[in-house]
């Protein structure tokens, strides 16, 4: 496709298209959609990011930064119905309850929005926009590799086969351009958990009836899977990523997700500044994973025994117990100078973009993986649940930028007590990632190559940049129609 001229806010013919963005309320879903909102707004579109009052309070700075940059990006806090179905006041994460307020908001606008982009887990938005005649795209968080596996698994009834199988029995996912084997445990199916079947069916149905998909990936990373996914879905797939690269300065990076401790972050940066290039392994398991003490000890001892400089982020609740706190303090004393343990939330992008960080031990959430790839940082893969096992296959087998820790079965969220990972696994994987040698060098070379390609994809003339232009242009025609 010939590169398109990049319109700016000044050259776009008015009125610009209006996108309404409806994230799922969970950090791993909201963070990329906030980035997407900024990407669209920076290219001249009007964007309304929908949330609830309580969750809006967790988006500090989004509206302020947009206002300062003169972007047409507003955060819309929909009233969340309270006192229903026994929900206590203050609980606002049952997104379905937003259907009425979202419809009322859109009906109240002077002009009908051009398009709604909703998280694929918000299948309920399909009903809302159908009655209003507004085009709908779904945002699918994982890479096209995973989405293609997922779609093929549903279409070929893979779940029925795996349900009757033994835990380690292998199945080939049909319709993949590469041979992909899964077990019952690692088979795709994000919401394929007992009790969530009805939600899952609603979401899959909403994907089928949408007008297209928006994915946080880029063509040079997974070209063949994007093509196959688009063909299998039978509708446009807009690859616009890595979204995280919209955050260009320290302030934007620091305001993503939960609030980080500013003083702590300066100390982290000062510590990283003293380290050699590519020497530090960064360890963080995303927003949801909580490690029980037994596994924290294995991670800590493994990092200590690896002999490598490390920056390890633990969550406050993980280290709340006095005996865990004491153990951690002793570890910090033994590894002082070489290791840094941070408690709470860190601005991950700022860390991954620091020249001293040369490896990342990750749970394989797609945001974390793509953020690492976008900054040329190879990974140790330690998947826990949902899409993470297949994301691991993409980065290890297809892209060649990962070392597996060696887990083969998922754990439920907040329950990885029985995960069979020991300190020797951490030592082996971290040493392989951070040590010298041909394999480590090759992995690092590939990661840096993908990092460069990621940047190019987002620049003028790059594939994601062009796709964004086309997306905005294609919905400009719908802009400004009477509601
Ligand atoms: N994140 C962060 N600081 C932290 C932990 C997580 O900024 O201390 C961000 C991370 O950069 C990513 C998101 O939270 O954007 C986590 O999403 P991911 O898909 O990796 O995993 P999930 O949290 O959904 O399991």
TrEMBL record:
SUPFAM superfamilies: UDP-Glycosyltransferase/glycogen phosphorylase (SSF53756). Residues 442-459 have a biased composition (Basic and acidic residues). Its EC number is 2.4.1.-. Residues 442-469 are annotated as: Disordered. One of its GO terms (molecular function) is UDP-glucosyltransferase activity. Keywords: Glycosyltransferase, Transferase. It is an enzyme of class 2 (transferase). PROSITE patterns: UDPGT. It holds the Pfam family UDPGT. Belongs to the UDP-glycosyltransferase family. This is Glycosyltransferase. It comes from Panicum hallii var. hallii.
């Amino acid at each position: 496709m010939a590169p398109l001229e990049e319109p700016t806010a000044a050259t776009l013919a008015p009125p610009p298209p209006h996108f309404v963005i409806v994230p799922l309320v969970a950090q791993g879903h909201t963070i990329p959609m906030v980035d997407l909102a900024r990407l669209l707004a920076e290219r001249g579109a009007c964007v309304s990011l929908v949330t609830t009052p309580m969750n809006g309070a967790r988006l500090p700075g989004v509206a302020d930064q947009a206002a300062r940059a003169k972007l047409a990006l507003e955060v819309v806090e929909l009233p969340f119905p309270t006192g229903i179905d026994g929900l206590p006041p203050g609980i606002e994460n049952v997104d379905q309850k937003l259907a009425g307020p979202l419809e009322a908001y859109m009906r109240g606008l002077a002009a009908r929005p051009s398009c709604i982009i909703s998280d694929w887990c918000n299948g309920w938005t399909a009903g809302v926009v159908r009655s209003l005649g507004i085009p709908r795209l779904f945002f699918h968080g994982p890479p096209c590799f995973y989405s293609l596996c997922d779609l093929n698994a549903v279409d070929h009834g893979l779940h029925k086969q795996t349900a009757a199988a033994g835990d380690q029995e292998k199945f080939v996912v049909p319709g993949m351009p590469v041979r992909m084997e899964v077990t019952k445990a690692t088979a795709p199916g994000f919401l394929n958990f007992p009790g969530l079947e009805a939600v899952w069916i609603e979401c899959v149905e909403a994907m089928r009836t949408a007008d297209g998909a928006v994915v946080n990936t880029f063509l040079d990373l997974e070209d063949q899977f994007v093509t196959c996914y688009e063909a299998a879905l039978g509708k446009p797939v807009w690859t616009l990523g890595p979204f995280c690269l919209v955050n260009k300065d320290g302030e934007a990076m620091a305001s993503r997700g939960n609030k980080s401790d500013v003083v702590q972050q300066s100390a982290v940066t000062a510590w990283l500044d003293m380290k050699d290039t590519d020497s530090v392994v960064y360890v963080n398991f995303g927003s949801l994973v909580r490690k029980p003490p037994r596994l924290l000890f294995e991670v800590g001892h493994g990092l200590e025994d690896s002999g490598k400089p490390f920056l390890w982020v633990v969550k406050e609740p993980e280290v709340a117990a006095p005996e865990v706190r004491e153990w951690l303090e002793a570890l910090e004393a033994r590894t002082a100078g070489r290791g840094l343990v941070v408690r709470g939330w860190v601005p991950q992008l700022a860390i991954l973009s620091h020249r001293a960080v040369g490896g990342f031990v990750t749970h394989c959430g797609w945001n974390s993986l793509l953020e690492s790839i976008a900054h040329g940082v190879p990974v140790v893969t330690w998947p826990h649940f949902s899409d993470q096992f297949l994301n691991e296959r993409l980065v290890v087998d297809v892209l060649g930028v990962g070392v597996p820790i060696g887990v083969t079965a998922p754990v439920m969220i907040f329950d990885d007590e029985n995960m069979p990972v020991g300190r020797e696994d951490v030592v082996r994987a971290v040493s392989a990632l951070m040590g010298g040698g041909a394999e480590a060098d090759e992995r690092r070379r590939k990661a840096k190559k993908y990092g460069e390609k990621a940047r190019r994809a987002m620049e003028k003339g790059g594939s994601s940049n062009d796709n964004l232009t086309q997306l905005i242009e294609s919905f400009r025609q719908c802009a400004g129609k009477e509601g």
